[in-house]
Write a structure and sequence with these properties.
Length: about 80
């Protein structure tokens, strides 16, 4: 992390690297990832990572796309559902 931060900036701090690894472990289907990364922000993905079931992650990801949810709206909806 220290070397990456020095080379590329603070986006590569340890916390973010752990999230990147978690993302790679949870979102393994390259076709789904390709589609979602063009429509969701990294902040959206960070909110989806704690969800343990891929079905739940994909449900919310689709809602984000369909209804243009902001990260704040996603948080609200996740509490309501």
């Amino acid at each position: 992390s220290t070397q990456l931060v020095a080379m590329h900036g603070k986006n590569f701090e340890s916390r973010n690297l752990r999230r990147m690894i978690q993302f790679a472990e949870q979102f393994q289907d390259i076709e789904i990832v390709s589609m979602l990364t063009t429509q969701l922000s990294w902040s959206h993905f960070v909110e989806l990572l704690p969800l343990k079931k891929i079905k739940s992650q994909l449900f919310y990801a689709n809602k984000i796309v369909e209804e243009s949810w902001s990260v704040k709206e996603l948080r609200i909806q996740m509490v309501l559902w």
